[in-house]
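no rush on this but wanted to send it before i forget. what follows is a protein written twice so to speak, once as letters and once as C-alpha coordinates for the fold. mainly i need to know what kind of three dimensional shape the backbone takes. thanks a lot i owe you, the record is right below.
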Amino acid sequence: IYAWTIDFFGLQNGDRFKLLYEGQFVDSVTLGVDRILAASFNNEGKTYYAIPFKQDGKEDYFDEEGNSLRKAFLKAPLRFSHMSSRFSNSRFHPILKIRRPHHGVDYAASTGTPVHAIGDGKVIAAGYIGQSGNRVKIRHNSIYTTAYGHLSRYGKGIHTGVMVTQGQVIGYVGKTGLATGPHLDFRFYKYGKAVDPLKIKAPSVAPVKQENRVLYDSVSSVMIELLNTIQ
Protein backbone atom coordinates (compact mmCIF):
# COMPACT_ATOMS: atom_id res chain seq x y z
CA ILE A 1 0.00 0.00 0.00
CA TYR A 2 2.74 2.45 0.98
CA ALA A 3 5.51 1.29 -1.35
CA TRP A 4 5.19 4.47 -3.43
CA THR A 5 4.89 6.86 -0.50
CA ILE A 6 7.23 5.72 2.28
CA ASP A 7 10.86 4.59 2.04
CA PHE A 8 10.74 1.48 4.24
CA PHE A 9 14.53 1.21 4.16
CA GLY A 10 14.79 4.56 5.94
CA LEU A 11 12.29 4.22 8.78
CA GLN A 12 12.94 6.25 11.95
CA ASN A 13 12.48 5.50 15.64
CA GLY A 14 8.98 6.65 16.52
CA ASP A 15 7.41 5.82 13.16
CA ARG A 16 4.17 3.92 13.69
CA PHE A 17 1.11 2.59 11.90
CA LYS A 18 -2.51 1.64 12.55
CA LEU A 19 -4.67 -0.83 10.66
CA LEU A 20 -8.31 -1.78 10.33
CA TYR A 21 -8.45 -5.19 8.73
CA GLU A 22 -10.49 -8.31 8.14
CA GLY A 23 -9.05 -11.59 9.36
CA GLN A 24 -9.57 -15.15 8.17
CA PHE A 25 -10.31 -17.84 10.75
CA VAL A 26 -11.02 -21.55 10.91
CA ASP A 27 -12.89 -21.92 14.19
CA SER A 28 -10.63 -19.92 16.53
CA VAL A 29 -7.41 -20.37 14.52
CA THR A 30 -6.35 -17.30 12.56
CA LEU A 31 -5.15 -17.67 8.98
CA GLY A 32 -3.89 -14.09 8.87
CA VAL A 33 -4.97 -10.78 7.39
CA ASP A 34 -7.43 -11.01 4.52
CA ARG A 35 -8.07 -7.39 3.55
CA ILE A 36 -6.94 -4.03 4.91
CA LEU A 37 -9.95 -1.73 5.31
CA ALA A 38 -7.98 1.38 6.26
CA ALA A 39 -4.52 2.34 7.44
CA SER A 40 -2.52 5.26 8.71
CA PHE A 41 1.26 5.44 8.80
CA ASN A 42 3.13 8.13 10.71
CA ASN A 43 6.55 8.60 9.14
CA GLU A 44 8.90 11.33 10.42
CA GLY A 45 6.00 13.14 12.03
CA LYS A 46 3.69 13.12 9.00
CA THR A 47 0.60 10.89 8.85
CA TYR A 48 -0.31 9.14 5.61
CA TYR A 49 -3.84 7.72 5.42
CA ALA A 50 -4.81 4.87 3.11
CA ILE A 51 -8.47 4.25 2.29
CA PRO A 52 -9.50 1.55 -0.22
CA PHE A 53 -12.00 2.66 -2.84
CA LYS A 54 -13.26 0.99 -6.00
CA GLN A 55 -13.81 2.87 -9.25
CA ASP A 56 -13.83 1.70 -12.87
CA GLY A 57 -13.96 -1.87 -11.55
CA LYS A 58 -10.61 -1.62 -9.74
CA GLU A 59 -9.89 -1.06 -6.06
CA ASP A 60 -7.00 1.16 -5.06
CA TYR A 61 -5.86 3.05 -1.97
CA PHE A 62 -6.26 6.81 -1.66
CA ASP A 63 -5.35 9.48 0.89
CA GLU A 64 -7.80 11.76 2.71
CA GLU A 65 -7.78 14.15 -0.27
CA GLY A 66 -8.70 11.40 -2.72
CA ASN A 67 -5.23 11.15 -4.29
CA SER A 68 -3.95 7.69 -5.19
CA LEU A 69 -1.13 6.31 -3.03
CA ARG A 70 0.11 4.42 -6.06
CA LYS A 71 2.77 6.49 -7.80
CA ALA A 72 4.48 6.14 -11.13
CA PHE A 73 7.72 5.04 -9.40
CA LEU A 74 8.84 3.08 -6.36
CA LYS A 75 10.88 4.97 -3.76
CA ALA A 76 13.90 2.67 -4.10
CA PRO A 77 14.92 -0.04 -6.62
CA LEU A 78 16.32 -2.53 -4.09
CA ARG A 79 16.84 -3.41 -0.45
CA PHE A 80 20.14 -1.71 0.35
CA SER A 81 22.36 -1.40 3.43
CA HIS A 82 23.25 2.27 2.91
CA MET A 83 23.91 4.92 0.27
CA SER A 84 27.64 4.88 -0.42
CA SER A 85 27.54 7.88 -2.74
CA ARG A 86 25.00 10.55 -3.65
CA PHE A 87 24.31 12.74 -6.67
CA SER A 88 27.19 15.20 -7.11
CA ASN A 89 28.80 17.45 -9.71
CA SER A 90 32.22 16.91 -8.11
CA ARG A 91 32.81 13.57 -6.41
CA PHE A 92 36.25 12.19 -5.61
CA HIS A 93 36.43 8.88 -7.49
CA PRO A 94 37.82 6.13 -5.21
CA ILE A 95 39.62 4.34 -8.05
CA LEU A 96 40.58 7.08 -10.51
CA LYS A 97 41.59 9.46 -7.66
CA ILE A 98 40.14 12.47 -9.44
CA ARG A 99 37.09 14.66 -9.00
CA ARG A 100 34.37 14.31 -11.57
CA PRO A 101 30.54 14.37 -11.73
CA HIS A 102 28.61 11.45 -10.30
CA HIS A 103 25.07 11.91 -11.58
CA GLY A 104 23.48 9.05 -9.70
CA VAL A 105 23.07 7.39 -6.32
CA ASP A 106 25.15 4.39 -5.25
CA TYR A 107 23.27 1.87 -3.10
CA ALA A 108 25.59 -0.50 -1.26
CA ALA A 109 24.22 -4.05 -1.12
CA SER A 110 25.41 -7.64 -1.20
CA THR A 111 26.23 -9.26 -4.53
CA GLY A 112 23.12 -10.94 -5.89
CA THR A 113 20.63 -8.60 -4.23
CA PRO A 114 17.62 -8.30 -6.61
CA VAL A 115 17.21 -4.97 -8.39
CA HIS A 116 13.67 -3.92 -9.34
CA ALA A 117 12.34 -1.62 -12.04
CA ILE A 118 10.94 1.40 -10.22
CA GLY A 119 8.17 1.76 -12.80
CA ASP A 120 6.63 0.29 -15.94
CA GLY A 121 8.58 0.85 -19.12
CA LYS A 122 10.64 -0.47 -22.01
CA VAL A 123 14.23 -1.67 -21.75
CA ILE A 124 16.08 0.50 -24.25
CA ALA A 125 19.54 -0.88 -23.40
CA ALA A 126 20.84 -3.97 -21.63
CA GLY A 127 24.51 -4.74 -21.93
CA TYR A 128 28.05 -4.06 -20.81
CA ILE A 129 28.67 -0.29 -20.88
CA GLY A 130 32.34 0.47 -20.06
CA GLN A 131 32.80 1.80 -16.54
CA SER A 132 29.13 1.14 -15.69
CA GLY A 133 29.59 -2.58 -16.31
CA ASN A 134 26.41 -4.58 -16.89
CA ARG A 135 23.66 -1.98 -17.10
CA VAL A 136 19.94 -1.86 -17.78
CA LYS A 137 18.30 1.34 -19.00
CA ILE A 138 14.51 1.74 -18.95
CA ARG A 139 12.39 4.39 -20.67
CA HIS A 140 9.24 4.85 -18.58
CA ASN A 141 7.58 7.48 -20.77
CA SER A 142 8.47 10.50 -22.87
CA ILE A 143 9.84 12.27 -19.79
CA TYR A 144 11.53 9.77 -17.46
CA THR A 145 14.29 7.19 -17.96
CA THR A 146 16.23 5.22 -15.34
CA ALA A 147 19.49 3.27 -15.46
CA TYR A 148 20.87 0.50 -13.22
CA GLY A 149 24.63 -0.13 -13.36
CA HIS A 150 27.35 -2.55 -12.13
CA LEU A 151 24.93 -5.52 -12.22
CA SER A 152 26.37 -8.99 -11.70
CA ARG A 153 23.76 -10.43 -14.07
CA TYR A 154 20.38 -9.64 -15.61
CA GLY A 155 16.91 -10.70 -14.56
CA LYS A 156 15.11 -13.47 -16.40
CA GLY A 157 14.08 -12.40 -19.89
CA ILE A 158 15.68 -8.95 -19.62
CA HIS A 159 17.07 -7.70 -22.92
CA THR A 160 16.83 -4.64 -25.13
CA GLY A 161 13.29 -4.06 -26.37
CA VAL A 162 11.39 -6.00 -23.70
CA MET A 163 8.62 -4.36 -21.66
CA VAL A 164 8.91 -4.48 -17.86
CA THR A 165 6.48 -3.80 -15.05
CA GLN A 166 6.94 -1.92 -11.80
CA GLY A 167 8.70 -4.09 -9.22
CA GLN A 168 9.95 -6.64 -11.76
CA VAL A 169 13.46 -7.98 -11.11
CA ILE A 170 15.67 -6.64 -13.90
CA GLY A 171 19.04 -7.65 -12.50
CA TYR A 172 21.20 -8.38 -9.48
CA VAL A 173 23.73 -6.26 -7.62
CA GLY A 174 27.36 -6.75 -8.60
CA LYS A 175 30.59 -4.86 -9.16
CA THR A 176 31.12 -5.12 -12.91
CA GLY A 177 32.83 -2.21 -14.63
CA LEU A 178 34.73 0.30 -12.53
CA ALA A 179 33.69 -0.43 -8.94
CA THR A 180 35.45 -0.99 -5.61
CA GLY A 181 32.72 -3.23 -4.23
CA PRO A 182 29.21 -4.52 -4.90
CA HIS A 183 26.64 -1.76 -5.27
CA LEU A 184 23.96 -0.43 -7.60
CA ASP A 185 24.65 2.79 -9.49
CA PHE A 186 21.12 4.12 -9.95
CA ARG A 187 20.51 7.02 -12.34
CA PHE A 188 17.42 9.04 -13.12
CA TYR A 189 16.90 11.11 -16.27
CA LYS A 190 14.24 13.73 -16.94
CA TYR A 191 13.95 14.80 -20.58
CA GLY A 192 17.33 13.13 -21.11
CA LYS A 193 19.10 15.12 -18.38
CA ALA A 194 20.44 13.43 -15.27
CA VAL A 195 18.65 14.56 -12.10
CA ASP A 196 19.01 13.63 -8.43
CA PRO A 197 16.88 10.48 -7.86
CA LEU A 198 16.34 11.46 -4.23
CA LYS A 199 14.67 14.71 -5.21
CA ILE A 200 12.22 13.32 -7.75
CA LYS A 201 8.57 13.69 -6.78
CA ALA A 202 6.82 10.88 -8.59
CA PRO A 203 3.57 11.87 -10.29
CA SER A 204 0.42 10.31 -8.82
CA VAL A 205 -1.89 7.90 -10.56
CA ALA A 206 -5.43 9.19 -11.23
CA PRO A 207 -7.26 10.40 -8.10
CA VAL A 208 -10.84 9.64 -7.08
CA LYS A 209 -13.07 10.93 -9.86
CA GLN A 210 -15.15 14.00 -9.16
CA GLU A 211 -18.40 12.10 -9.61
CA ASN A 212 -17.28 9.66 -6.90
CA ARG A 213 -16.03 12.21 -4.38
CA VAL A 214 -19.18 12.46 -2.25
CA LEU A 215 -19.25 8.70 -1.76
CA TYR A 216 -15.50 8.52 -1.18
CA ASP A 217 -15.51 11.38 1.34
CA SER A 218 -18.26 9.69 3.35
CA VAL A 219 -16.32 6.41 3.41
CA SER A 220 -12.95 7.97 4.20
CA SER A 221 -14.28 10.18 6.99
CA VAL A 222 -15.73 7.14 8.79
CA MET A 223 -12.53 5.11 8.34
CA ILE A 224 -10.25 7.96 9.49
CA GLU A 225 -12.45 8.51 12.55
CA LEU A 226 -12.18 4.80 13.39
CA LEU A 227 -8.40 4.86 12.91
CA ASN A 228 -8.11 7.83 15.22
CA THR A 229 -9.83 5.87 18.02
CA ILE A 230 -6.91 3.42 18.05
CA GLN A 231 -4.39 4.42 20.71
Remarks:
- Residues 62 and 69 are 5 Å apart (CA to CA).
- The chain has a mean pLDDT of 89.
